[in-house]
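Changelog entry: the Mitochondrial fission process protein 1 record was regenerated in this release. Current contents:
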Amino acid sequence: MSKTEKDHIDLYRETPVRYLGYANEVGESFRSLVHVNVVRFSYVVASGYVVADAVSKGIEASVRPCPSEEVRNTNIRRTVLDTLIWQGLATVAISGFTINRICAFYLFILRRVSNIPEPAKKWTTTAVGLGCIPFIIKPIDRSVDYFMEQTY
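Regenerated structure tokens:
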């Protein structure tokens, strides 16, 4: 690895821009408190992050030396597709679904067994969802890595 490759900082994975990818998890955490369009917008933000990362990786692949234009184009397509699939699964689909189900289950349980006021139940559910985000990221990322290695 050359010095410039070591010094290269990936804007989409090694800077605070990465947090845009978590927008849908935050949206799902707040689902019980906000209008559904706010949650939908959080998915737009996260999906925009995924597309921007894929485009960025494609641009990086386009400047790497290749023996022919055909090989270069194949490498670009593979890189973009790989990034879209991985990020789409890990950043948007699986993580959003996971937080959605955690929050839905927690709110369901609170409504069944708790006498606390409804607004407190919703805020508690939101806090649980937000609190789960740091704990689900690495297992989901590793699972998607494994899936991608075994399939695509």
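Residues 3-150 form one domain.
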